[in-house]
Amino acid sequence: MTELAKSSQAPLLSLRNINMTFGGIRALKDVSFEVMPGEVHCLAGENGSGKSTLIKIVTGVYRPEPGAAIEYDGQTYSHMSPVTAQAAGIQVIWQDLALFPEMSVAENIAFQTVLGRWPRVISYSRMHEIAVKALARLGVSLDVDRPLKDYQIAQRQIVAIARALIGDAKLIFMDEPTASLTQSETDHLMDIVRTLSASGVAVVFVSHRLAEVLEISDRLTVLRDGALVGVYPAAGMTQSRITELMTGRTFEYDVRSREVSANPVVLEVEKLSRPGLFEDISFTLRGGETLGITGLLGSGRTELALSLFGMLKPRSGTIRLEGKPVRFSSNRAAIAAGIAYLSEDRLSLGLIQPQSIADNLVIASLDRVTSGGFLSDDRKRALVAQWIADLGIRIGRQDDAISTLSGGNQQRVAIAKWLATNPKLLILDAPTVGVDVGARAGIFEIIAKLADSGLAIILISDEVPEVYFHADRVLHMAEGRIVNRFTPRDCTLADIEAAVYA
């Protein structure tokens, strides 16, 4: 659908004077927002800016304060309900996926087709057929009869996208849909979004990957601290300009790569292999060094990290920590030896969402907050207060659920959890997934300070600029092997990107 055709139509969705308050805090302040039929519209803003609240108002999860006006597909509503929104063709892919790990892929994709007011006989063959067709539309083939828990997070993300596409959708919200996808999967999703747009389906795209925003969007609505900054055409916009609009600040990164060859060796890995996952991995890591590992999802990066952390046992090869050979029987043994691992899946593996901020922060270092075998509330609160202050974590109360924090602050708590163990080696697996650009800058400032203090760090990311600007050296993995080694101060960003995305 052309820009001229879109602009000549009435909006599919029009929100006016949207206000929302939680506990005396204004989450949305007189926001107006509209989406045209067939438009790809980016909703941009830092975590906590009000994006998710606005989506939940459209989908009926929240009711806006009096005075709001909602028009959708020619109808006027004082508020939407979840049932009304779904019946009207509004679908959402949430960042946390909202899937059922114990159910099969087919059940996760097609379960809404068997819901209703009255009991009915479930046809599993029909659910199987629906799921296969939905995945085929994404160009993906999965065993739809296997439990979802058998699949990695990237495949789970695809299942969530397939589920959203099976309905007769007119408007789809995609909240960080590419956060766990490979570059090729992301490219394919972009093609699907363009196809949906051409067929008249509107897509509201929320992503912290600003290059994707510029590639796919027609227009951008920017929120900051719950208020509307403005609505802008994507044409002519730059990543730096979006960042400035979102945060009110500008960010410029310089290559950090330093010479650390005089520092003592902390970790030595020699010919480490686990057939089917990674082969013949060798490298050294020194104190105060940040070693970047990049490559597409499926390249063996996370599996290597899990082997260093004692959760996967290598078949052959040697790991030495401060010169001493180690072979961990479990992650507990790795933690005791001084290795910490921040998981790429913060929501389900990195943190326990219903538990308090304090409990999440101390869970890996209980020996430091116990006295005589019993938990000491005073020690616990002191330790939590120390790390909240040191990492600049913004919280209400220590006893609040971790789920009340923004993604950036949750990630800082996850980092603090491992720093509290006083590690010799910190492995950060995709530490900025689902974190906005402002919070990312803060996380990388923390990483730089930790390296300057002498901590050895492994930084894993599929976003090449992250390792290029923030690591001293970079290993490129593909198909379970190290295929390239780079020193950022001696090469360009384009050199590494060309190798990774070739």
TrEMBL record:
InterPro entries: AAA+_ATPase, ABC_carbohydrate_import_ATPase, ABC_transporter-like_ATP-bd, ABC_transporter-like_CS, P-loop_NTPase. Keywords: ATP-binding, Cell membrane, Membrane, Nucleotide-binding, Repeat, Sugar transport, Translocase, Transport. GO terms for molecular function: ATP binding; ATP hydrolysis activity. It comes from the Bacteria. Pfam families: ABC_tran (PF00005). Belongs to the ABC transporter superfamily. This is Lipase. It comes from Paramesorhizobium deserti.
